[in-house]
Design a protein that fits this description.
The protein is an alpha/beta fold. Helices cover 37% and strands 22% of the residues. It has a seven-stranded mixed β-sheet. Helix 1 crosses helix 5, helix 2 packs across helix 3 and helix 5 runs antiparallel to helix 6.
Amino acid sequence: MKYLIVGLGNIGAEYQDTRHNTGFKLLDAFAKASNIVFSEGRYGATAQCRVKNAELVLLKPNTYMNLSGNAVRYWLQAEKIPVENLLVLVDDIALPFGTLRLKGSGGAGGHNGLKNIEAMIGTAKYARLRFGVGGNFPKGMQVDYVLGNFSAEEAAAFPERAALVCELIKSFCLAGLDLTMTQFNNK
């Protein structure tokens, strides 16, 4: 079985350590733990690895967050991966920092990257992991918050949370969505 694991973020050094690049950071942690490296390709940086009998294609789109659907659609088609084998990693301001929420479908929750993916692949029935980045910002300051860096405390806790996400990705590919949701949600 082949899987497409997508981390959402924005390209460019100015966005590298921001909350909005959590999807990229999580994929970087998975790649490091798997001893693989990303290479630039069409619509983004990709890396491939195997986890037992599962072949994983990791994708960090270079289309900017709000146009991520172009890259997702392209790589699903190019690698002949069914939508049920797609997992998108994304930041979520509605969840406390480090909270994990895996779902098999649903709305975009105001996240423009997810909205674009849904529009480009024609369905909202794909797995997405929402990684909580917290929402402690004054009214009207959401953009500054998500494009800001994690606090020192959050940055120190991130590697442990990312390691848990690495295990979640493996479980998604080997044990399936339902069991993985039961095992990892709200951890």
